[in-house]
């Protein structure tokens, strides 16, 4: 069976590092490239972190290109250094190996277009940071939509937020870009929201198995102290939430997450709901009544999974 083709768009970030490694170490994945975006930390750091994580995994063959350094329209109000560390990797990015490969000239959009045009079959894209690069790609190069199998993104929430009461960080960082991708573009999307990623949190025992599972697992575990401290406060126990790795698991193995198809909107106002994903889970007969004409955009929203099975899948790939 041919390996599935995948591109990751990312803002590493501890959970991004786990997600990149998950794809890079999976023999059934043809990781075509990695593009970086601002998000958890500035673009300079996210790009360097992506290069170093790939080097850790022995994947200097994977091209990396730097993308958007800021949102489409409005400045990003805050970053997530208080969760991921000021360098994005708990202050330990320098402990990863120096990359043998430099970034690709021309930037992320050029790399994305080239990889998609050259692909012999439709490609899965896994955006696990703000959706700025993907919005720019689809707006400037609409012909590549035919080469995209689906977009599997980590972002949003059905009944919760993390940056605000209702908004998840990736969507909140550039709501205008998120709306363009999720609402305005006709590309199949799977949204992996906070509601599910929190269900998939891993505990100290899982992290101990990761650390004991080989040099890559040990190196990844060593990146988690700041992240672990943050989630100890929010979870109430020793563990971390591997948000982005949950989405990449679905990109690698379609169906590992159970999805439901719902109409969706993204709030781009400057009120308290900015950056919220409005998932319309009403019964079909109740949707849209009195709300104007036009069919709403629909997205596959990941709602559930075999949590233990998913944890074993990720751990197995990272320690094989």
What does this entry look like structurally?
It comes from Amycolatopsis alkalitolerans. GO terms for molecular function: purine nucleosidase activity. Residues 6-309 form the Inosine/uridine-preferring nucleoside hydrolase domain. Keywords: Glycosidase, Hydrolase. It holds the Pfam family IU_nuc_hydro. Strand 4 (123-127), helix 5 (132-140) and strand 5 (148-154) form a beta-alpha-beta unit. The protein is 38% helix and 18% strand. The relative contact order is 0.16. The chain is of the alpha/beta class and 320 residues long. It has 13 helices and eleven strands. It is globular and about 50 Å long. It has a single domain (4-319), classed as Ribonucleoside hydrolase-like (Inosine-uridine Nucleoside N-ribohydrolase, Chain A, Alpha-Beta Complex), CATH 3.90.245.10. The protein has a nine-stranded mixed sheet with strand order 3-2-1-4-5-6-11-9-10, with helices on both faces. A two-stranded antiparallel ribbon has the order 7-8. It has helices spanning 14-24, 43-56, 81-84, 108-118, 132-140, 169-173, 175-184, 194-199, 204-212, 215-221, 225-235, 243-252, 307-319; strands spanning 4-10, 29-36, 64-66, 123-127, 148-154, 189-192, 202-203, 239-240, 257-266, 277-279, 298-305.
Would you tell me the structural class of the helices and strands? Answer: alpha/beta
C-alpha Rg (nearest Å): 18 Å
Largest sheet: 9 strands, mixed
Average pLDDT over all residues: 93
